[in-house]
Amino acid sequence: MCGIAGAIRETAESLEQRILPMIEAQRHRGPDDWGVWDDGVCALGHRRLSIIDLSEAGRQPLSSEDGRIQITFNGEIYNFQSLRRELEELGYGFRTRTDTEVIVRAYERWGTDSVKRLRGMFAFGIWDQRRRLLMLARDRVGKKPLFYTRLGDRFLFASELQGLLAAEHVPRRVNLSAIDAYLSWGYIPAPLTAFEGIFKLPPAHYLTIELTPMGPVTRVERYWSLDYTPKLRITEDEAAERLREKLTEAVRLRLISDVPLGAFLSGGIDSSIIVGLMAALSDAPVKTFSIGFEEAAYNELEHARRVAERFGTDHHEFVVRPDALAILPKLVRHYGEPYADSSAIPTFYVSQMTRAHVTVALNGDGGDESFAGYERYLGNRIAERLRSVPGSRLSAQAIGRILPDSVDPKNRLRQAKRFLTAAARPVASRYGQWVGYFGREAKQNLYTDRFRASLDGHNPDEWMESLFSETQDLDPVEAAMAVDVRSYLPYDLLVKVDITSMSNSLEARSPFLDHEVMEFAARLPVEFKLRGRQSKYLLKRAFSDLLPAENVSRRKMGFGVPVGEWFRGALRPLLEDALLSERSLKRGYFQPVTIRRLVADHLERRADHSSSLWNLLMLELWHREFIEK
Fold first, then answer.
1. Bridge partners of 219?
2. Both 92 and 28 in a single domain?
3. How many other β-carbons are positioned within 10 Å of the β-carbon of residue 385?
4. Is the separation of the CB atoms in 211 and 228 below 8 Å?
5. I need a labelling partner for 512 at 20 to 30 A (CA). Which of 227, 269, 451, 550 fits?
6. 307 and 195 share a domain?
């Protein structure tokens, strides 16, 4: 796992000095070593976190045997050993034991199609000197990030926004359309970033720039998508057996390492399965790491302990308290753009604790998106059925309006009210109200006329509508799952884990996100995933003998953070300083009266606005860190 950077220019010029600040800004991603290669047209930089082949042979940038191909690579290729054997049979030799050299050889053999053969998480830049072609690529689901920009006749790329912003003359102009999207979703989807002129390469895409006599030719291609059809003709017993085989293999591949490994353990079914499989495949006790809270409604430590005892792990715990928010400025810097998922706080601390013991940690990310773990999947099915019954939409709205609200975000009546008031909406609008922050109606009262006019008609809802338009032939449950794989998963969940782990120089691996596991799960009959009201039906059946019964049967808690109460207590000064200060209210985005009302209603317990206030807080802290400075 590493940090990468690079630059190309149409006319020859030494680029090494431009690359050095970019890789230095990403030192945390690779504290063990660094390297730069430059031929005057292209320069590649690398910060190394040594995981496989710790020798000097694993240094990057790495070249092909003839020097024609150069690569800087971030990630892990889990099938590199089988790919290497295939390439050796085709006559290719190898100088190292690294997966990096396997990518180089695969590119020599198959060109840009080589990316389709890689099984793992990755972002890389390849420079083909003979063709004067740069290839950038990201893994299928988007575990590893990649940003790029054009600066005059130069093209720059890096693993993090920090890397690009460290380059000379890269401007920091706010992309207002991206801010609008952030206020809707809590994240900024590709290709947008918070900065004008800087872009994200989307997951499952590669970009090529070929320097031709007529000028540079740029192409961006999608190389993979997750297909939910045709459905497998398979019995439950066969499906459970094959799932267990595939997930066990995914875990086994992710145990390949020359440094110590451990696992995040939440006590939920997904991370518990991963720990159980690791224990079965390991000779020594698995090191496990869990996070909890003093607030009982958010604390899962007892469930994690039960799993740790079941498998005899070497278990470690950390309790997050409000003073833990002291790391907020650091997280804001590492994310590089506004990011509103408050669970980044405990994820940072579990990563920090884990890194004190191991360099690699497995986790349970991706289980919900493949096996229907979120309640909104069932909600989408019920809502679609309601819409088909005459008069039911009006009834649902009426019931929703009269249900009492609550300042407790986990209150079941509050959740029912949220469901019913949105159930009658078209699917994209409904989904946005369930998972989003500020909807179209809320923005009418929030935005100033000046900010609204500057958006020039930009509508972030159109993005969500386009995602759902591609799922029209799917069951409502799988439609919502497919949209999550294209939105929430890559731009919220995976961004959170990449930044919090890599800011602590820790590599995070996710067996559920193995694309072969995901492809198998997608093509299972939907009733194998959600049966009645039971989520993760097949997953629980396949591993029921492995886990404690209490962990299999308990209701999903989710990785929430009690920021609502923290805002009324220890974090109140931070909230009021950030959102009610003169410099914040004069930015011109929001109507001061609306901001003051949101804060006052929350503090005086007239409503719970914890997620909205956290969204606004992160935007303000980002502004202070990246724009004002």
1. 208
2. yes
3. 12
4. no
5. 550
6. no
- pLDDT for the residue numbered 398: 46
Tokens of 215: 């000028």
SS3 28: helix
**Residues 520 and 546 grouped into a single domain:** yes
CB 239 within 8 A of CB 500: no
CA distance 318 to 464: 37
* Residue type at 178 in one-letter notation: A
Output the CA torsion 120→125→129→131 (10° steps).
Answer: 80
Give domain status of residue 419, yes or no.
no
Q: Which two tokens stand for residue 363?
A: 């986790």
Tokens of 48: 């190394």
Q: What total number of domains does the chain contain?
A: 2
Instruction: Report the distance separating Cα 474 and Cα 595, nearest Å.
Output: 40
Nearest residue to 229 via CA among 474, 484, 516: 474
Check: CB of residue 187 under 8 Å from CB of residue 495.
Answer: yes
Contacts of 222 (CB under 8 A, 6+ apart): 202, 204, 205
Distance of CA 460 to the CA centre of its chain: 19
User: How many of the other CB atoms lie within 10 Å of CB of 39?
Assistant: 15
Of 498, 528, 553, the one marking the end of a domain is 553
Rg of the chain on CA atoms, in Å: 24
- Per residue in 200-246, pLDDT (tens digit) is 999 999 999 999 998 899 999 999 999 999 999 999 999 999 999 99
Same domain, 60 and 153: yes
> Do 359 and 501 contact (CB within 8 A), yes or no?
no
- To which residue do tokens 């630059």 refer? 7
Structure tokens given for 244:
């267990």
Active-site positions? 2
Confidence of residue 405 (pLDDT cuts 50, 70, 90): low
The tokens for 140 are 């299928």
SS3 271: helix
pLDDT band with cut points at 50, 70 and 90 for residue 389? low
What's the burial of 176, exposed, middle or buried (CB within 10 Å: 0-12/13-18/19+)? middle
* Angle, vertex CA 611, rays to CA 270 and CA 193, nearest 5: 85
Starting at the earlier edge strand, list the strands of the sheet with 42-48. 33-38, 42-48, 2-9, 154-158, 147-151, 198-200
The CA-atom distances, in angstroms, between 123 and each of 41, 205, 207, 439, 481 are 21, 10, 11, 33, 25
* Number of Cβ atoms within 10 Å of the Cβ of 27: 13
Domain span at 240 = 236-318+337-371+489-553
CATH of residue 366's domain is 3.40.50.620
With CA atoms as reference, report the closest residue to 605 among 417, 418, 407.
407
